[in-house]
Amino acid sequence: MEGTEIIVRAVRTVGNNTIALELESPAKFDAQPGQFVQVRGEVDGEEITRHYTLSSPDTDGTFEITVGIDPDGDLSPWLAELESGDTVSVDGPFGRSYYEGEESVVVLAGGPGVGPAVGIAERAIADGGEAVVIYQDDDPAHEERLRELEAAGATVVVTATPLAEGEEVTDALESASGQLFVYGFADFLEEANTVLTATGHEPDDAKSENFG
Hints:
Blueprint: E1 4-15, E2 18-24, E3 36-43, E4 46-53, E5 62-68, H1 76-80, E6 87-94, E7 104-110, H2 114-126, E8 130-136, H3 143-151, E9 155-159, H4 167-174, E10 179-184, H5 186-198, E11 207-210
Parallel strand pairs: 7-8, 7-10, 8-9, 10-11
Antiparallel strand pairs: 1-2, 1-6, 2-5, 3-4, 3-6
């Protein structure tokens, strides 16, 4: 879809300065967990676009994106002010690093990477598969969904320290198998690749998305 006006169904706080936007799925909108959309908004007379990765396990009826709010940002404060019934322009989906029905998934997420991490893990569990989520952030978001994933049988490790310094992280990765996914900023991807190599995985096999 290109430049489609989509109705906002809900805006929820899911962490400190973090919201989840639930958006109505347009007809024939087919996106998988891990793909992203381009969101357009007009702020002070200027059109601004940003990319956000889906954080919902599916797009049945609605889909979700998770937005970190930067008070000095161009678009995120505007998105945070949206209410149910408002509309926002969306293009997409885009991206090749997404869930494709793998029986077992291992998702490493840094900061905003938690969005696709919970979406992919929830979908894998719903499909009868297994999921491991390693999430690095000193101020975690989506904590309720992470707890629900753990209750559903997923392995969930949340850490504020560098990945390689966390014994729980390395223990989880050493015993994990399945399709690797890595989502986060460039420095996190580098760190994730290092710890994956150290725990017997091949980083080149990972489906990765660099957020900049």
